Amino acid sequence: MLRIPVEAGIAAGAPAWVELDLAALRHNVREFRRVLGPDRELVAVVKANAYGHGLREIAAAVLRAGAAQLAVADVAEGAALRAHGVQAPILVVGPMAPGECRDAVRHRLTPCLGSREQAEALAAAVRPGAPFPVHVEIDTGMHRHGVPAASFGAFVRELRARGRLLLTGVCTHFQALSPGDLPAMQAQLAAFARALALVRDLGTVLRHAANTLGTLVCPDARLDAVRIGGGLYGFERHGHGVVSLLPVLSLKARIVGLRVVEAGDSVGYGGRYRCTRLTRLGLLPVGYADGLSRGSWHEAPVLVRGRRVPIVGLVSMNQIVVDLTDVPEAGFGDEAVLIGRQGDDQVHAEERVQPGGSAYEVTTMLRRDLPRVVMG
């Protein structure tokens, strides 16, 4: 199928760029909407520059695709979305410093409160007479941000007595990393339910606990809404048999240099890589300043003319070198795919995950001002 770029700008001639497949994004939203049904909201998590994909581009597309509201990490991200004309509800799921509270109110962002101190600072920024809507995160085991579960009842009473803040949602955050953590997830969900029971007149607040993994493996956690982050972008693409997801992001570059070196010649800083044969090298204009950490991208495969070629030598700040010996037809200006599909092969971000790491790190580390090409 012919793919038409709907937004390119400077990327048309850029030597390296990120490509976003909005058709894949819409597919992923449809898959989650199918699972959720008509009565649950989908909160699209676009924090950290939409997991490195591009905040403005993804936010607009995911709202058109059926998300009810957005979630960001901090006030700055929410303010940036308002500056781009986003009118949908925006939930700030991370903690806020006291100095951010006034901006949160001014930009009509919904804070997710996690402490008395935060509630007091926010209340001080709100004008009397018009209670400001807030959510409260209940800590059920993450021990990071959130009101201790046993203190939730007292926290709500204090919130109501203060009068300037209106409780419109309650949530918790799972610490699970894999389906094998389901028992721990269910224990947190039970703790969440016990905390909610401490407030008998809680009313019709929006209850949300499940992230992508929770939505897929713990149906009881779907409640009134779910917060979908990685799943939007095609991570968890196998969907544990519940959904089938498509990667949204590709990372591409042009070959900007070619040379032939002898067997025994070294490549890159430190001379740690030595060629074992007459070798044809290709130069790509991306490096760790663009988000390609040495640990994750060492000897990583790159697609050129539909075939995998390895990165050789250490990743430099702004450049990497690939071994093109087995692709002799590759030439100056050819497209190289570091993440994404070319021909019959596809390189996934998950291939770059280090032990104990996450595929989210691979994309969130991408330089924010890398040009973005949006495909319809």
User: Uncertain segments of ≥5 residues (pLDDT<50)?
Assistant: none
Tell me, briefly, the overall form.
Answer: elongated
Please give the number of β-strands. 22
Structural class designation: alpha/beta
Q: What's the number of helices?
A: 11
What about the largest sheet?
11 strands, mixed
Task: Note the gap between the termini.
Answer: 12 Å
CATH C-level category of the largest domain: Alpha Beta
Q: What kind of assembly state do the chains in view correspond to?
A: single chain
Task: Report helical residue fraction.
Answer: 25-40%
Number of individual domains: 2
Radius of gyration from CA coordinates: 23 Å
Description:
26% of the residues lie in helices and 26% in strands. It has 2 domains: 40-241, TIM Barrel (Alpha-Beta Barrel), CATH 3.20.20; 249-375, Lyase, Ornithine Decarboxylase, Chain A, domain 1 (Beta Barrel). By secondary structure, it is α/β, with parallel strands linked by helices. The termini are close together.
